[in-house]
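User: My advisor, Dr. K., asked me to get a structural model of this assembly before our group meeting. I'm new to this, so sorry if the format is off. These are the inputs:
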Amino acid sequence: TQLLEQSPQFLSIQEGENLTVYCNSLSVFSSLQWYRQEPGEGPVLLVTVVTGGEVKKLKRLTFQFGDARKDSSLHITAAQPGDTGLYLCATPGGDSSYKLIFGSGTRLLVRP
Amino acid sequence: SAVISQKPSRDICQRGTSLTIQCQVDSQVTMMFWYRQQPGQSLTLIATANQGSEATYESGFVIDKFPISRPNLTFSTLTVSNMSPEDSSIYLCSVDTGVGQPQHFGDGTRLSIL
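Assistant: The format is fine. Below is the predicted structure of the whole assembly, which you can bring to the meeting.
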């Protein structure tokens, strides 16, 4: 089973600051998905990265996939209170690639 | 994308009782999954709900504790049996969008056991 470690576990920042969240594994990812979960809701997909070295941007969010496909990062520029939530990385894994293995999560709080 | 409805959204239950959670999808899907999310934690897969056959459980989860039904391609239930305070969690269902593809999630059922 592939373990996904996310860091930091918790981040509390002021509105307008920048931050980076990391997702790491000892194994190579076939692909990696980033989700955000807000209180009272299920996780919602933000992006999928597939190719080593890939960079994707979603407004103020920038996602990078490591060249070796063992790590990924999510950078948020000028964070807003609406960015508050639990950020999860996930990768297909197990004996069926329909299944997802989720990272340990990073809980972000952006203070106004 | 698929719209997933979970019921109930929350419940408070007595120790030793059982609760059945329903998950309804607005379109036919191949795979349905059930997850547990303990307070402040990430998601842990309980089982894959297979249409027409027994669910496939992950290590640490058993059918007697978490019986699952999947009568058709749009509906599944998860029962949490003989509940104890340790079962207090959010239970989420999800559906696949293809092999290796993202999943769509319901909003979860927040369960508290007294």
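One thing worth pointing out at the meeting: Residues 4-113 of chain B form a domain with the Immunoglobulin-like fold (CATH 2.60.40.10).

User: Perfect, thanks a lot.
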